[in-house]
Design goal:
Length: about 120
């Protein structure tokens, strides 16, 4: 794609066009990411009237995090049982492992070389 100048009229046309982002981009001479930005309201919202809604956060409550870490079931079944996306289960496990590794690494650091992070705060974030 070359550099196509987007005008408010062109942004509205892209916003109202139908088809895949690839098809729309090819018809209007813009990239797929530009089509996505216009369609979702991340860009040109003043011309299209679209309202950008950022994706829902992946944060889970401390209670859900504790349930995930205490579970002995598969990640898929844990996600289904708790009603959360499987990626949220994976992130809870990943964060717990990351904190455990950091906590273990700081055990051998002499106090005069630095202050360890607040691991309890990290676990509850």
């Amino acid at each position: 794609m070359g550099k196509t100048v987007i005008t408010p009229e062109k942004a509205r046309a892209i916003y109202l066009d139908t088809g895949t982002f690839t098809q729309i981009g090819a018809r209007h001479g813009v990239s797929v990411s530009m089509v996505g930005g216009i369609k979702t309201g991340r860009s040109w919202s003043e011309a299209t009237g679209a309202t950008y809604r950022p994706p829902a956060g992946r944060k889970v409550s401390p209670e859900i995090r504790a349930a995930v870490l205490a579970s002995t079931d598969t990640q898929r079944n844990t996600a289904l049982r708790l009603g959360i996306p499987i990626n949220a289960v994976r992130m809870c496990i990943y964060e717990a492992r990351r904190i455990a590794i950091a906590r273990e690494a700081w055990k051998d650091v002499p106090a005069n070389l630095g202050t360890p992070p607040d691991f309890d705060k990290m676990e509850n974030a």
